[in-house]
């Protein structure tokens, strides 16, 4: 009998997805450019389920029942195009190609349009959860046609993570919607990681706590509203001691954060769509700043504040305040990310259900958290919510925490501890709630030097002031 799905590209992510499918009772055709990986998979894990090892593109395609479902798990970019071109000519009308890698959504849109012309379905799907997730249940964000989801959806839902019985997989929307949502997931991931890292830095810098003590603080936080995978692994990383030196692990790691680029994409697209995702942008810049060793070495001697530690009552409250600041800043980062999805959905006509996205991020993915169920509920109650910040529980929590949030940002500023994530989140909050913004002055400046015109608060129309004449005159343009 034929396989119900096939996976080509058997590096660890592809291999684990194939194993996950097989473990759920699906017959999986497997294929890899170099044959050894295929043999290894079947040799090591063949007992887990029904695998059909194949050693050529033709053999792979012939092993699949129709409509064929071919999952590609290779490097994003040119390698993905190459593999598509290898298989597409062998497929027939109605067959489905699934790209489960971290592709740029614009590439996915291009590929989907081209393959649709050839009668094939192309599903760009986000898969989050790393190697472990791929094997035990990832969060899956498929795009592509509704028709493709009819055959593919049940399989993907079957192997996805489950939260209270609900699969962490849904049809996100057409063409590139799935990869777009995965991109924003990663942007939020960057922001969340940065905020957690700043919390660590504050507790260490302002209070002088050791990493093991801070691990303990995170362990406590993880029992409350911050309960999440990222806080949990932070605790583990901070509690870890380097075997070779006996020092805290975090102290022997070079302090230069790297990135494969999905965060950068999120920021680029945020700029293109005109959506202020300052939290994600600051997190991305913070990584790039950390990597500039020469710049940092050159600036290391610059003067800082005389006082760098907290003491007394301030110190006593501080950890609690940091928890408040972390929570509030996190709400901002997620609010911005969801606004970006909303904007992408409007721009490309995807009709993405934000509550459904929050729902499938509750389990399996890197940003999985208790908090995401609150976001799901917020969008369920009000699908066109302008920002999470004004929604019931979030509003209450952030308003309740704002004094602590302000105090943490000002303490950080006084002590010279950089908190770009906390600071930008607070600035976003204050800018959104401001009655008037100095943007009015910026418009005046633009009109002065470039006759760029402005709108008025009291009249419709577009205006320009004749700045050069003796008596400055306003006129409608
Ligand atoms: C996930 C992760 C995964 C990966 C990213 C981030 O959702 O499972 O986001 O996609 O870890 O590529 O990596 P960088 O930090 O290197 O950008």
From TrEMBL:
Domain 6-phosphogluconate dehydrogenase C-terminal residues, every copy: 178-468
**InterPro entries attached to this UniProt entry:** 6-PGluconate_DH-like_C_sf (IPR008927), 6PGD_dom2 (IPR013328), 6PGDH_C (IPR006114), 6PGDH_Gnd/GntZ (IPR006113), 6PGDH_NADP-bd (IPR006115), 6PGdom_BS (IPR006184), NAD(P)-bd_dom_sf (IPR036291), Pgluconate_DH (IPR006183)
State the function annotated in the UniProt record: Catalyzes the oxidative decarboxylation of 6-phosphogluconate to ribulose 5-phosphate and CO(2), with concomitant reduction of NADP to NADPH.
Q: Which NCBIfam families match?
A: gnd, PRK09287.1
* Residues the record marks as active site: 182, 189
Instruction: Give the residues the record marks as binding substrate.
Output: 102, 128-130, 185-186, 190, 260, 287, 446, 452
Q: Which GO terms describe its biological process?
A: D-gluconate metabolic process; pentose-phosphate shunt
Q: What is the uppermost EC class here?
A: oxidoreductase
Self-association state and partner proteins as the record states: Homodimer.
- Which amino acids does the record list as binding NADP(+)? 9-14, 32-34, 74-76, 102
Q: What is its EC number?
A: 1.1.1.44
Reaction(s) catalysed (UniProt annotation): 6-phospho-D-gluconate + NADP(+) = D-ribulose 5-phosphate + CO2 + NADPH
State the UniProt keywords alphabetically.
Answer: Gluconate utilization, NADP, Oxidoreductase, Pentose shunt
- GO MF entry, a single one: NADP binding
Q: Tell me the route in metabolism or biology where this protein functions.
A: Carbohydrate degradation; pentose phosphate pathway; D-ribulose 5-phosphate from D-glucose 6-phosphate (oxidative stage): step 3/3
Q: Does the keyword Methyltransferase apply?
A: no
Q: What is this protein called?
A: 6-phosphogluconate dehydrogenase, decarboxylating
Which family does the record assign? Belongs to the 6-phosphogluconate dehydrogenase family.
Q: Name its species.
A: Amycolatopsis cihanbeyliensis
Q: Which Pfam families match?
A: 6PGD, NAD_binding_2
